[in-house]
């Protein structure tokens, strides 16, 4: 089976009702991103950061995968599919995809503030005073701006080995994830689904579909199956 890699971003989850800060004024649910998604924000106000992600977690319980998520899962019948997602939700999993690399972390997990290898399932709220086994405050298992991306090399290896790379719902403005596109092989087919201009100049290299995630996947699905 050909190796099909998906690089997904906030645009695919937005169609399920999950807000993205990149589409508007740089705010994420009326918060400055640096206040809720950076080590500095965590040091300044842990309670606010915890409540911000508690609200995101509660919302995630209420939304469902959309047709784009479902079509990506369906492609596993025809390809060796690997999803690399910048999203912290579990909508790919719930849609039925089985090989998912969350390079920016997972909302339904928490970890020790002192040791991010101490990871726990976290379907409910995190409160001040909730401790990991090392005695440190639990924090969201999220890669914040300014932190290392531990799974980036694994993502690069997957992209390098791909026969087809589909970029969906991402403006390719957040690094290092945006840099993954530079790792494709010369004969890898590159397809980009995004309604807006991206941060990357493709030249003649990419098939670009200026569509939202769901519409783009509906248009692309049969064409991909014919390439299997």
UniProtKB/TrEMBL annotation:
Role according to the record: NAD-dependent lysine deacetylase and desuccinylase that specifically removes acetyl and succinyl groups on target proteins. Modulates the activities of several proteins which are inactive in their acylated form.
- The protein's predominant localisation is cytoplasm
Q: What is the lineage of its organism?
A: Bacteria, Pseudomonadati, Bacteroidota, Flavobacteriia, Flavobacteriales
**The species this protein was found in:** Chryseobacterium joostei
What is the name attached to this protein's record? NAD-dependent protein deacylase
Q: Which residues bind NAD(+)?
A: 9-28, 86-89, 169-171, 194-196, 213
What domain of life does the UniProt record list for this protein's source?
Bacteria
Q: Which GO terms describe its molecular function?
A: histone deacetylase activity, NAD-dependent; NAD+ binding; protein-malonyllysine demalonylase activity; protein-succinyllysine desuccinylase activity
Cell compartments where the protein resides: Cytoplasm
* Enzyme active site: 104 (proton acceptor)
**By its UniProt entry, which PROSITE patterns does this protein fall under?**
SIRTUIN
| InterPro entries reported in the protein's UniProt record | DHS-like_NAD/FAD-binding_dom, NAD-dep_sirtuin_deacylases, Sirtuin, Sirtuin_cat_small_dom_sf, Sirtuin_class_III, Ssirtuin_cat_dom
PANTHER family per record: NAD-DEPENDENT PROTEIN DEACYLASE, NAD-DEPENDENT PROTEIN DEACYLASE SIRTUIN-5, MITOCHONDRIAL-RELATED
Provide the catalytic activity annotation.
N(6)-succinyl-L-lysyl-[protein] + NAD(+) + H2O = 2''-O-succinyl-ADP-D-ribose + nicotinamide + L-lysyl-[protein]; N(6)-acetyl-L-lysyl-[protein] + NAD(+) + H2O = 2''-O-acetyl-ADP-D-ribose + nicotinamide + L-lysyl-[protein]
A Pfam family reported for this protein in Swiss-Prot or TrEMBL:
SIR2
**What family does this chain come from, according to its entry?**
Belongs to the sirtuin family. Class III subfamily.
All copies of the Deacetylase sirtuin-type domain together span 1-228
Q: Which UniProt keywords apply?
A: Cytoplasm, NAD, Transferase
This protein's GO cellular component annotations are: cytoplasm
